[in-house]
Amino acid sequence: MRRQYRVLIADDEPIIREGIRDAVRWDELSMEVACEAEDGEEALELALQENIDIALVDMNMPFMDGIALMKRLKEERPSCRFVIVTGHDEFAYAQEAIRLGVKEYILKPVNAEHLNQVLRSVKQELDELYVRDLYFQKASEQIEKNIPLLRERFCLEWIHGLISHNEALEQLEFLGLPPRLPLQIGIVRWPETASNQPLMKEGERQLYLFAIENIISELIQDVPHMLFREQTGLIGICLWEELPVEAAVDMEKAVLKYIKRTVNVHLEPVEHEPGGVSEAYDACRGAVFRESQLSPIVRRARQLIHEVYAQHDLTLESFAAGLQVSPVYLSRMLKKELGTSFVGFLTQTRIRKAIELLTSTDHTIHEIAEQVGYDSQHYFSTAFKKVMGVSPNRYRKGAGYAEE
Question: Measured between alpha carbons, how far is residue 42 from residues 9, 39, 45, 101, 295 in Å?
Fold first, then answer.
């Protein structure tokens, strides 16, 4: 912990500087005289150049007096410590000097023992600060190393409603995350983690979970996000930018493509109010468990609708043909498991995509209608109003966009 401290002697009298230099047992105090100055301006320049720790300052110097010098040094090197060397007639400066953190006055002519005693006290103070800074540095390094763990623990407490809104915002900033509520919460569920049968060893299970996390992170790397994991194996996602409606399907397809595992992904918007994060997570968890109960044909139909919803001539018959099942069977399964018809689910998908375009682009209503699969603006507006209760124009206006 031993450290060598660098000292500046600033006095316009050479004999005083020489006397101070000869009076102190510098080695015993782990100090060295790094520089000397005969006026205030020179002292300031040298102090900054030589990274001075301690300044022995005369009050009356040419160009810049002791008080002005200490004010400047305190701004530039806050950790620098001052000892004033002065005559009897300058005690009027005492109040200002104390405010600047001056350790002590030493009267001329300098008493060697007193000067050594004062500098020993300064050294003790600097040693304590040095040790404190080392502890703070180690603590900072430890925190930095554990930031991923701290983020995950924070997210788990947040989604379970154990952290207040204000506390959450403070911790977000501390953890290097956007200091505001996320726009979406997501959950990735790998059904095999919930199986009661030990189908694989724990090490292999963890390997797959890390692979799933890496795939998801790569897909959303351009969006501010945070992944965390529950002990049950559920992977949570906090998103500070909203993903499009088909993003969940894209995640499921990517995991299946690269590691040949089926996962269920669901995203929910976060209401900007206290408890919004935990409520969104609860809704997300319920939805992802419901989705995991879907039959393979309904899951495939759901994914395919997200891919082809923009086709204008899409019908139940053509869609069922693409899945190699009968229209009657597909319609019955969709109604049973999703609670809606093929047309109803297709309309929901198109309207969700339309909402995304209405709120994030300046495309005309006609352009949006075509992009989400409608032949005419009138038909689109009718369908939109039936689902949302207002026209596309009115919805956009309410979202802060000018009416087309």
Answer: 11, 6, 5, 22, 83
Q: HEC states along the chain?
A: CCCCEEEEEECCCHHHHHHHHHHCCCHHHCEEEEEEECCHHHHHHHHHHCCCCEEEEECCCCCCCHHHHHHHHHHHCCCCEEEEEECHHHHHHHHHHHHCCEEEEEECCCCHHHHHHHHHHHHHHHHHHHHHHHHHHHHHHHHHHCHHHHHHHHHHHHHCCCCCHHHHHHHHHHCCCCCCCCCEEEEEECHHHHCCCCCCCHHHHHHHHHHHHHHHHHHCCCCCEEEEECCCCCEEEEECCCCCCCHHHHHHHHHHHHHCCCCEEEEEECCCCCCHHHHHHHHHHHHHHHHHCCCHHHHHHHHHHHHHCCCCCCCHHHHHHHHCCCHHHHHHHHHHHHCCCHHHHHHHHHHHHHHHHHHHCCCCHHHHHHHCCCCCHHHHHHHHHHHHCCCHHHHHHHCCCCCC
Name the token pair of 246. Answer: 């088909």
* pTM of the full structure: 0.55
Which residue, 207, 298, 223, 184, is CA-closest to 261? 207
Q: Helices 316-323 and 327-338 sit at what angle, rounded to 10 degrees? A: 90
Task: Write the pLDDT tens digit of every residue in 183-233.
Answer: 999 999 887 765 554 556 778 888 888 899 999 999 999 999 999 988 888
For residue 102, is pLDDT > 80? no
The mean pLDDT of 101-111, rounded to a whole number, is 76
Q: What is the pLDDT of residues 16-32, one digit of tens each?
A: 999 999 999 999 999 99
- Write down the pLDDT at residue 32: 94
Amino acid, res. 311: Q
